[in-house]
Amino acid sequence: MEKRDVFSLWLESTCSFGQRSLISKFCSVMAQERDGILKRNSLDICADMLRVSRVGARKSHLVYRANLNFLIVKKYLDRLVDNGLLDHSGDQFYTTNKGSEFLERYDTAIAPLSRRL
Questions:
Q1: What gap in Å lies between CA 103 and CA 48, rounded to an integer?
Q2: pLDDT higher at 2 or 56
Q3: Whole-model pTM above 0.85?
Q4: I need a surface site. Which of 1, 23, 27, 45 has the fewest CB within 10 A?
Q5: What is the pLDDT of residues 9-55, one digit of tens each?
């Protein structure tokens, strides 16, 4: 049996679906690490945008503070607003209670996995 198969079996037997998904995404990101630069996945990008929007942020602030481009920000803004994680008033975007709860759970789940070995 390959190591990957053993890992998959362990994940299925010990973790909930949401935890498995988060761990799987984290592992795929770690596998993409090149030259000391870690590539972000969609959950990382959403979390960064929610952090920036805690006190309110315009689209341009999200672009610069979350280190993204306008096309990517537009795509993720639509997703976050549609799912109730962000709200907007005029040109400002704010993290909702649901978005704050997501961010807390994300940070809690990713913390033990993000320590460098």
A1: 9
A2: 56
A3: no
A4: 1
A5: 555 666 666 666 666 665 655 555 544 556 778 888 999 999 999 99
Using CB atoms within 10 Å of the CB of residue 36, give its burial: 0 to 12 exposed, 13 to 18 middle, 19+ buried.
Answer: exposed
Half-sphere exposure of 82 (CA within 13 A, CB side): 7
Tokens representing 109 are: 């789940």
> For residue 9, what pLDDT is reported?
59
Rg (CA), the chain: 16
Question: What single-letter DSSP state applies at residue 34?
Answer: B
Give the residue carrying structure tokens 């770690």: 30
Rounded CA-CA distance 49/94 in Å is 10
Cβ within 8 Å of residue 28, ≥6 positions away? 41
DSSP readout, 80-116?
HHHTTSEEEETTEEEE-HHHHHHHHHHHHHHTTTSS-
Query: Quick one: DSSP state of residue 56?
Result: -
